[in-house]
Amino acid sequence: MRILFASFAAFIVCGTVSSPMVSSPAWADDPVDPPAASAPVPTTKAARLDQLFSDLKRERNEKAAERIAGRIWGEWSQSGSASIDLMMQWSQKAIEDQKYDVALDFLDQVVTLQPDYAEGWNRRATVHFLMKNFGKSMSDINQTLRLEPRHFGALSGLAQIMAATGHKQSALEAWQKVLAIYPMMRNAQDQVATLSEELAGEGI
Prior knowledge:
By secondary structure, the protein is mainly alpha-helical.
């Protein structure tokens, strides 16, 4: 379970404004090849995300896919509000210090002030998960996915909650949804293989 907790926290927090719960993912600061000169450059956040998700789904090189995922986290982290960004930074520091109640105070304000900011819900889901409040974490994951159905971090969190609570089939289905969005996510590949084998064995 320690591995599951660490993995979940890394996935659903790694797109933070400041440093993530453990450390910035290696790919977050990696340079990404610029688009070809003839390719139009998306000008809106929605258009950029659509292009990045399209690239992520087609990419078959694991490291290149990680860099694309890092760019997606970067887009997700942008709240458009300096005050929200600051509260997200404060919540991150509280998480790092394991002051989860303090983190929740900041995140409650974030989701109240900007309820359409998916990362606010996603961050709060992380804190609830770390506190083993699975029901509340699930509720916030659902809000995250309502705002961004392609959120592979929130889906991976959902999968791990399902596995942790003994719902292997639901966990498998959630991991399969992750792979439909991010085919080269190694952890999701491993989890699908493991759960498929376990469920097949239990069916014998």
